[in-house]
Amino acid sequence: MKKILTVMAVVALLSLFTLADTLAQRGGGWGAGTPYSRMYNPQTVENISGEVVSVDKITPMKGMHSGIHAMVKTEKETISVHLGPDWYIENQDFGIEPKDKIDVKGSRITYEGKPALIAAEVKKGDQVLTLRDASGVPAWSGWRRK
């Protein structure tokens, strides 16, 4: 009987560890509190305006799910704007395409040795896509994939 209880306890603990690991990976590295998300710094938030040069999928850090970024040409520079995980961006009623004029509010970071913005908000015409709150918490935190 003691042996059975010990085995059951070990199985229960392993199940809990597996569940915790699965929940941690579910956000694919994009969730609040992940190393990538912690790169967002409210102290470095700025606004840029420019024309979209390209829109691509990227994987910002090893082990993350792919995300969408746009190269935006401003008066001063052409900068990579990281929008969010592809599964989230593709489920929004907001498209971004080359030649679109957009305004971006985001945190300036250095990504692969170059300046980039992690977007909090993107405006195109009258449309606004909110991606993060003022603290940098992603809009997709707690949001379910379809």
- Report the CATH topology name of the domain at 37-130: OB fold (Dihydrolipoamide Acetyltransferase, E2P)
Q: What order do the SSEs take from the amino end to the carboxyl end, as H and E?
A: HEEEHEEE
**Rg of Cα set:** 19 Å
**Tally of strands:** 6
The average pLDDT is 83
The secondary structure category is alpha+beta
- What percentage of the residues does DSSP assign to strands (E)? 35-45%
CATH class of the domain at 37-130: Mainly Beta
**Shape category:** elongated
Distance N to C terminus: 45 Å
Number of helices: 2
- Give me the side-by-side strand order of the main sheet: 1-2-3-5-4
Uncertain runs: 9-26
Under the CATH scheme, the architecture of the domain at 37-130 is Beta Barrel
Describe this structure in words.
It is a single chain. The protein has 146 residues and is an alpha+beta fold. The chain has a domain of 94 residues: Beta Barrel (OB fold (Dihydrolipoamide Acetyltransferase, E2P)), CATH 2.40.50.140. The protein is built from two helices and six strands; from the N terminus they run H-E-E-E-H-E-E-E. The chain starts with a helix and ends in a 16-residue tail after the last strand.
Q: Top keywords for this entry?
A:
146 residues, alpha+beta, OB fold (Dihydrolipoamide Acetyltransferase, E2P), 5-stranded mixed β-barrel, 2 helices, 6 strands
Please provide a brief summary of the model.
With 146 residues, this protein is α+β, with helices and mostly antiparallel strands. The chain has a domain at 37-130: Beta Barrel (OB fold (Dihydrolipoamide Acetyltransferase, E2P)).
